[in-house]
Specification:
There is one protein chain. By secondary structure, the chain is α/β, with parallel strands linked by helices. It has three domains: 67 residues, Alpha-Beta Plaits; 80 residues, GMP Synthetase, Chain A, domain 3; 180 residues, Rossmann fold, CATH 3.40.50. It contains ten helices and 17 strands. The strands form four sheets. The protein has a seven-stranded mixed beta sheet with strand order 13-12-11-14-15-17-16, sandwiched between helices. Strands 2-3-1-4 form a four-stranded antiparallel beta sheet. Helix 5 packs parallel to helix 6 and helix 8 runs parallel beside helix 9.
Amino acid sequence: MERPCLKVRRELASRALGLLREMDLLDRAFSPRREDAFVFFPLSREPTPVELEALTDRLGQVEVARTDFEPREKPKSLLEILSRALPPDLLEEVPRSFDVVGDIAIVEVSPPLWPHRSILGEALMEVHRRIRLVLAKGGPISGPFRLRELVPIAGSGPTETIHREHGCVFKLDVAKVYFSPRLSYEHARVASQVGAGEVVIDMFAGVGPFSILIARRTGGCLVFAIDINPVAIHYLAENVRLNKVRGLVVPVLADAREAVEKALEGLADRIIMNFPEGAKDFLGYACRALKPEGGIIHFYTFAGAPDPEGEAVRALIEGVEEAGRELRKVLVVRKVRAVGPFRWQVVVDAEVA
């Protein structure tokens, strides 16, 4: 099948492959073709003049042409590929799930599998051809910015990517900001509840997955999106522009407590508290941010067996009552995801008077 392609000399093939993956120009549905001293890489589209200039600058003289390519064989399963490269006892260590943010995969690699991490990464890219970079988790999430060390194990290019979710686009750097694609359902669930005319405070907004989706779906609300991480706020402002919600989402670089004290007390109809490690410590400020007549709090926390839902509700009631307000009604309580043995992230939606 004839496709647009990039023609390069064989000695530049490895570098060209990395650049095309980085620029999201490689069409992974077709196999590259070799002919004499040249390699032809199938392209997903014609490069723009700026992209062509960048390729020329990095590779020297290149040529964009059209030629026939053979479709790739159907990808094999991850275990099938790894069974040829790993000892049988290590196959039990292969992760059954991983996160994909844009064109980057983030995977948990167990200690026994760690010496073979590059084999795992390459196999992931072979099975999932739109992935250009595989990162291994190098430690737990920690610190006020909720970041973890990420170790490249396969692929190439920057840790910045563009992630698409529910019709929105989110530009972000996975190494410098917190973002979890596993919360996609929560983003949509909360956004579906917001009504026109509401004032929403997203106390730990990150790059804006709650805030921007709310603004896109509601259209007539105002969201104050707070985060203490300046890199997250940089991307949040960019995502506000990309998703055309200027005037609906207001990025605020601050600690959420400071933001409430200085400017947001008594304004909100709805508060989003997606900071399960420490949301309990901010409940007093969330209550201060609600309007005098009350409103809705979406409270995320970690809780364990035997009764994670009850533990989360009790934590919310305690914090609300300490702030001098009343939890009028629990609207929803559910386990969002497992975070460890007998431990979950739990959300409580509650009406607070």
